[in-house]
Amino acid sequence: MINGNKLNLMLPSGNDLLKVLEAIANPYRLKIIALLHGRSIHVSQLAREVMISRPLLYMHLKKLESAGLVTSIMELSDNGKAMRFYELTSFSLQISPESIAEAVKTLTLKKTVPTVLDPDTKKEKEDDK
User: Fold this and answer.
1) Alpha-carbon distance 90 to 93, whole Å?
2) Does the pLDDT value for residue 11 go beyond 80?
3) Which end of the chain is less packed: N or C, by CB atoms within 10 Å?
4) What is the pLDDT of residues 45-70, one digit of tens each?
5) Could you give the CA distance from residue 110 to residue 113 in angstroms, rounded to a whole number?
6) CA-to-CA distance for 35 and 127, rounded, in angstroms?
């Protein structure tokens, strides 16, 4: 999926497509992408600009990083303090019915066990073993 330094999202695998779509399906993460466009920002400054706490920002950045949309760089300040800066990776996303059909072929579906509720208590029933 990664072509040189540019993330190629034109024909991603099904799982990669889901990661990217999940990552950008949040208004805070879209705002982070917009703020990082064309610049590298220290995490404290980014938290101020997005107007959210650093722990919440880290959660959003982790999701974006996992999808391959952002990267971080650790730099030392003049006084020796470690400072983490974030920046966008170079990426392009194009979605069409054809690209989705191709991505689905490589999608790993997670099997879930259906929950059976007791009609009287509306709580999960114990398995009869």
Assistant:
1) 10
2) no
3) C
4) 999 999 999 999 999 999 999 999 99
5) 10
6) 50
